């Protein structure tokens, strides 16, 4: 009985994840334009929430802007988003971010994520490793309605910073999660 329940949950997760990944049927050229437009909007929204992030952006070796990540889960969960890597404010590459999770969780959420690579070494490491995971060397800052948890241009000492903001929806629980970044072929 337990094996059947787990298998059923696994099938639900696979269908859900395929749905998330397959939601996009826009042409590649248009997709790049849309990602760039949405990334600029997300970046401006972050600058409005916290003007200190302007200097962090300008001093970073590179920045990944993922303007819209959709995350949902019920025991098994997943998320997906597409974004752009900018170096010196110019779009260089496009990436997708997908994650899977397992644990006590229920709900759905949409949010924006911006990752600042503060050193050339951190940026180079991200670009040469397929399947880079956000974790060990990163500090994650959650923002909600303009509230900041301690990142400023004076406190930037880590090689990578990730800021999650503009959350919409409700997702509650605790789970184990892994994320994978993959370069989109353009």
Question: How is this structure best described in words?
Answer:
With 186 residues, this protein is an alpha+beta fold. It has one domain. Helices cover 32% and strands 45% of the residues. The protein has a four-stranded mixed beta sheet. The termini are far apart. 26% of the residues are buried. About 9% of the residues have low confidence.
Compact overview of the structure:
With 186 residues, the chain is α+β, with helices and mostly antiparallel strands.
Spell out the key features of this protein.
186 residues; four-stranded mixed beta sheet; alpha+beta; 4 helices; single chain; globular; 32% helix
Strand content: 35-45%
Instruction: Give the overall silhouette.
Output: globular
Oligomer: single chain
Share of residues in helices: 25-40%
Q: State the end-to-end CA separation.
A: 46 Å
Strand order of the largest sheet: 1-2-4-3
**What is the overall number of helices?**
4
Secondary-structure element order, N to C: HHHEEHEE
Ranges where pLDDT stays below 50 over 5 or more residues in a row are 135-150
């Amino acid at each position: 009985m337990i094996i059947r329940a787990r298998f059923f949950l696994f099938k639900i997760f696979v269908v859900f994840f395929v749905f998330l990944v397959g939601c996009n049927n826009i042409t590649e050229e248009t997709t790049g334009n849309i990602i760039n437009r949405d990334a600029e909007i997300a970046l401006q929204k972050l600058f409005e929430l916290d003007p200190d992030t302007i200097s962090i952006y300008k001093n970073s070796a590179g920045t990944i802007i993922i303007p819209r990540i959709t995350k949902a889960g019920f025991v098994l969960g997943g998320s997906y988003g597409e974004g752009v890597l900018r170096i010196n404010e110019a779009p260089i590459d496009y990436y997708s971010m997908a994650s899977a999770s397992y644990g006590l969780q229920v709900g759905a959420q949409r949010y924006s994520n911006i990752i600042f690579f503060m050193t050339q070494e951190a940026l180079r490491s991200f670009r040469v490793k397929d399947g880079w995971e956000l974790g060990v060397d990163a500090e994650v800052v959650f923002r909600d309605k303009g509230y900041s948890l301690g990142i400023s241009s004076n406190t930037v000492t880590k090689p990578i910073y990730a800021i999650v903001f503009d959350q919409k929806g409700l997702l509650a629980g605790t789970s184990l999660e892994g994320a994978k970044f993959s370069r989109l072929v353009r």
